[in-house]
């Protein structure tokens, strides 16, 4: 396998906190979710400043404050750069991106307060910004690292050509991208090729295509679902385990993000660590996803 790096020490499966505000949990229930993830080996938690209308980080931090010692066992990931039109940010007149030094620093400081921590293990720029100045941003990242506020940096939803200028100025730790049996683009547009070339283990958001792998009624989703169910049955594993193993089989060794309140979902994804698909099995699912055999 390629020599891939994971400098931020992220767990093989990452817990996504995007919908935490929607779950309507008490601080004690949120803490129980954090602890249950840790119990099965999921120690990394993916956030963004905008999640839950700028509310999720505070909800997580409130729970973490009930057991502050847990901070030593987890990795906190956050993202910034999107400015939403929101009652929580009355100064935003139009949704836009901002990767200026002032905004990145302000966002980091707010995330630290909300999460009740003194540092982020990983900070990502949430979306490509047409006005991104790679020299300014690299300088900002270096300053935040010197100050001990952020340990590692990366990007999210960047194309290879958008990632390259920043990576040339400061070594990035990862790139977060969408990939699933219903979204194959990164396999063929150079995104995962670049990850292998640079040794970056990508984080994968929506690895189950937002659940459409299991609930979608279009012809493609039904075709993929049938193949997933058949292969999972043949291998004696859960469908989520199969999809996670299929993603992890790529030489870039992706880290799937599962944003579910159900610990059994994360547990089934973690079971993929004990499953290795051969090339024929991998391409069988690719063929179902692409709707054709390889050329």
From TrEMBL:
Pfam families: Aldo_ket_red. It comes from the Bacteria. SUPFAM superfamilies: NAD(P)-linked oxidoreductase. InterPro entries: AKR_Detox_Biosynth (IPR050523), NAD(P)_OxRdtase_dom_sf (IPR036812), NADP_OxRdtase_dom (IPR023210). Residues 12-287 form the NADP-dependent oxidoreductase domain. PANTHER family: NADH-SPECIFIC METHYLGLYOXAL REDUCTASE-RELATED, OXIDOREDUCTASE YDHF. This is Aldo/keto reductase. It comes from Pseudaquabacterium inlustre.
């Amino acid at each position: 396998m390629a020599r891939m790096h994971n400098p931020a020490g992220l767990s093989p499966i990452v817990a996504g906190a995007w919908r935490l505000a929607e779950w309507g949990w008490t601080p004690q229930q949120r803490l129980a979710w954090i602890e249950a993830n840790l119990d099965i080996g999921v120690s990394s938690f993916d956030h963004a400043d905008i999640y839950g209308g700028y509310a999720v980080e505070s909800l997580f931090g409130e729970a973490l404050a009930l057991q502050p010692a847990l901070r030593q066992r987890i990795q906190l990931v956050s993202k910034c750069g999107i400015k939403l039109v929101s009652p929580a940010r009355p100064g935003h007149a139009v949704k836009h991106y901002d990767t200026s030094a002032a905004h990145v620093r302000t966002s980091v400081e707010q995330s630290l307060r909300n999460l009740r921590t003194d540092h982020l293990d990983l900070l990502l720029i949430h979306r490509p910004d047409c006005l991104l100045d790679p020299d300014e941003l690299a300088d900002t990242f270096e300053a935040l690292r010197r100050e001990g506020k952020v340990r590692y940096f990366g990007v999210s939803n960047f194309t290879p050509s958008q990632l390259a200028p920043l990576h040339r100025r400061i070594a990035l730790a990862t790139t977060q991208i969408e990939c699933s049996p219903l979204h194959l683009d990164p396999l063929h547009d150079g995104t995962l090729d670049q990850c292998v070339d640079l040794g970056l283990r990508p984080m994968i958001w929506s690895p189950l295509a937002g659940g459409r792998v299991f609930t979608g009624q279009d012809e493609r989703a039904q075709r993929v679902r049938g193949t997933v169910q058949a292969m999972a049955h043949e291998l004696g594993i859960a469908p989520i385990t199969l999809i996670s193993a299929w993603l992890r089989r790529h030489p870039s060794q992706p880290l799937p993000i599962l944003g579910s309140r159900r610990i059994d979902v994360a547990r089934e994804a973690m079971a993929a660590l004990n499953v290795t698909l051969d090339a024929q099995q991998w391409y069988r699912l690719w063929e179902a996803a692409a709707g054709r055999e390889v050329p």
